[in-house]
Amino acid sequence: MLDSNSLAHVIALAPAAPALGAVIIALLLAARLASERVVASVAQTAIGLGFLGLLVGLVGWAAGPAGPLQLGFGSWYSGAGYDFRIDLLVDGRSAAVSALVSLLLAATSQFSIAYLHREPGFNRFFLLMLLFGAGMQALVLAGNLELLFVGWEIVGMTSVLLVGFFHERLGPVKAATRVLVTYRLCDIGLLTAGVSLHRWLHTSDWLAAEQAALTSPWPSTFVGLSLVFAAMGKSAQFPLGGWLPRAMEGPTASSAVFYGSLSVHAGVYLLLRAAPLLEHSLAAQTMMIAVGAITAVISAMSSQASPDAKSALSYATASQVGLMFVEIGFGLYTLATVHLVAHAVLRYYQFLRTPSALQDALARRAALGRTEADEGAVRWEELGLRTRRYVYRMAIERFDVEIALERYVVRPVMALSRRLDRLESRLLALHGESERRAKGGRR
């Protein structure tokens, strides 16, 4: 049986191997030595090595004493009462999700070799995919909030860059900007929670914070609401979910692994990891239930009204993630974890199959000998024409959520930003004028 030191090093391959692969591809690109065959080989080797290390480590952990295992790699930075440690936490939840990440990355790399063959961005895609894999594994295996935040930011950065993968068109660039703004806004919640945990519990280590929360006074509601807010943006929950359909501008492979299976569930995983802390806040639990329920209903209706397959799947994904929020709010953590893994696998397959969605639908209908929509169409026709038109309009416009955000949030913030920009320009001009006068006086 492997000792804890050996376990730490083999499990660390899960995030380290993809990160090393990304560095190698970046060096090959800089030296102009990258070809599709070489890049694909490096990517698959890195992903395979990471998966092998994770598999060996998880087998060693399962064969050892029962319970969570914290693996330390020392301190990255310490000073003034603050210690940033690189710790990994292995338990049933992180083991399941980490294995899922490795499997889906391996499948995506194999699929993308043929799917992106001779695409101008082939090498760039694999570089970003490896960075994403490293960030996602760091997020899942993190033993403290700081390391989780590092993975969280890497996942966000690569997500934005892949949404704007086809940057020669204006649509993907606008969509990537929307994703970036939403991510940065909700990162405030994660940063606030981290600072608050250090301020009141003097640690952001998950296991230590769980114990300290039982004995030390701390603002559980404030921290809980901050974490829920961060998860809402990352997992496309009401009212911040407008970016998810826009994220479909990227390649199908990135839509599958990012917004169908892994990245969109990062917020759910954050809440699962912080669940022992969230149990101390009734307000945070209530917010999860309310936000999740509203998202589930609105997104399910929008999915039915969407005119294209990828948008319909994106809304359906947000709807199921909303149900996971509800499950966590009610304390059903095991159910939420199983739901996460099963839903990620299903959506991954569905997103990869979207180019063949019409062919699949026709084949199913031919096999059944009838139209699948018959029963639903009959029930829909029972509603009055005015009601059907109203419900359809509201569903396709997401119940005017985007309009309200544009009018009452985006425009005021942009107006304030422009005013601050003009003020800054004037202050800089005045400062420059005063410096010129001072220099002239000295002469």
TrEMBL record:
<feature type="transmembrane region" description="Helical">
    <location>
        <begin position="221"/>
        <end position="244"/>
    </location>
</feature>
<feature type="transmembrane region" description="Helical">
    <location>
        <begin position="321"/>
        <end position="346"/>
    </location>
</feature>
<feature type="transmembrane region" description="Helical">
    <location>
        <begin position="125"/>
        <end position="143"/>
    </location>
</feature>
<dbReference type="InterPro" id="IPR003945">
    <property type="entry name" value="NU5C-like"/>
</dbReference>
<dbReference type="GO" id="GO:0016020">
    <property type="term" value="C:membrane"/>
</dbReference>
<feature type="domain" description="NADH:quinone oxidoreductase/Mrp antiporter transmembrane">
    <location>
        <begin position="142"/>
        <end position="356"/>
    </location>
</feature>
<feature type="transmembrane region" description="Helical">
    <location>
        <begin position="149"/>
        <end position="167"/>
    </location>
</feature>
<feature type="transmembrane region" description="Helical">
    <location>
        <begin position="256"/>
        <end position="276"/>
    </location>
</feature>
<dbReference type="GO" id="GO:0042773">
    <property type="term" value="P:ATP synthesis coupled electron transport"/>
</dbReference>
<dbReference type="Pfam" id="PF00361">
    <property type="entry name" value="Proton_antipo_M"/>
</dbReference>
<dbReference type="GO" id="GO:0015990">
    <property type="term" value="P:electron transport coupled proton transport"/>
</dbReference>
<feature type="transmembrane region" description="Helical">
    <location>
        <begin position="38"/>
        <end position="63"/>
    </location>
</feature>
<dbReference type="InterPro" id="IPR001516">
    <property type="entry name" value="Proton_antipo_N"/>
</dbReference>
<feature type="transmembrane region" description="Helical">
    <location>
        <begin position="95"/>
        <end position="116"/>
    </location>
</feature>
<dbReference type="InterPro" id="IPR001750">
    <property type="entry name" value="ND/Mrp_TM"/>
</dbReference>
<feature type="transmembrane region" description="Helical">
    <location>
        <begin position="282"/>
        <end position="301"/>
    </location>
</feature>
<feature type="transmembrane region" description="Helical">
    <location>
        <begin position="179"/>
        <end position="201"/>
    </location>
</feature>
<keyword id="KW-0472">Membrane</keyword>
<dbReference type="Pfam" id="PF00662">
    <property type="entry name" value="Proton_antipo_N"/>
</dbReference>
<keyword id="KW-1133">Transmembrane helix</keyword>
<keyword id="KW-0812">Transmembrane</keyword>
<dbReference type="GO" id="GO:0003954">
    <property type="term" value="F:NADH dehydrogenase activity"/>
</dbReference>
<feature type="domain" description="NADH-Ubiquinone oxidoreductase (complex I) chain 5 N-terminal">
    <location>
        <begin position="76"/>
        <end position="126"/>
    </location>
</feature>
<dbReference type="GO" id="GO:0012505">
    <property type="term" value="C:endomembrane system"/>
</dbReference>
<dbReference type="GO" id="GO:0008137">
    <property type="term" value="F:NADH dehydrogenase (ubiquinone) activity"/>
</dbReference>
<protein>
    <submittedName>
        <fullName>Proton-conducting transporter membrane subunit</fullName>
    </submittedName>
</protein>
<feature type="transmembrane region" description="Helical">
    <location>
        <begin position="6"/>
        <end position="31"/>
    </location>
</feature>
